[in-house]
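User: I'm designing a mutation panel for Winged helix-turn-helix transcriptional regulator and want to avoid disrupting the core. Could you give me a predicted structure to guide residue selection? Please restate the sequence first so the numbering is unambiguous.

Assistant: Good idea. Sequence first, for numbering, then the predicted structure tokens:
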Amino acid sequence: MLSETDRKLLRILQEDGRITNQELAARCGMSPSACLERMRRLRERGYILGYAALLDPEKLGQPLLIFIEVTLDRTTGDVFREFAEAVRERAEIIECHMVAGGFDYLLKLRMPDMGTYRVFLTTLAEMPGVRETRSYPVIEEVKSGVALPV
């Protein structure tokens, strides 16, 4: 169970993953050694999975964000497994979620432009088990983030 202090630590870390232990401790009203110990426990218990830099997709030449619904031809373990393996090999697929409902997977992609995406569609159609896809290019990102409510 998380204490309110643990939750505060996690909220601050989500805002600024590069904060120093000294500053984090000060903002939480604790000593640096106590803060370091709490952080160690949160990592060991799996609350903190890792640290990453958030990159600007436009500056890296990948401004186009697309969501794709994927329906498989069969919903069997082997088809799920083969499709998942194929997805993991594609760097432009930045997220893949198996979902319940009218389709099987929801993909999130970053691409340089529609021409590159058109070429990718051929590859997607040839992935194991793919029967049908529906694409949703994003016109405007209204809210985007990775922080969890803590």
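For picking mutation sites, this is relevant: Strands lie at 64-72, 93-98, 105-111, 130-137. Residues 64 and 114 are 8 Å apart (CA to CA).
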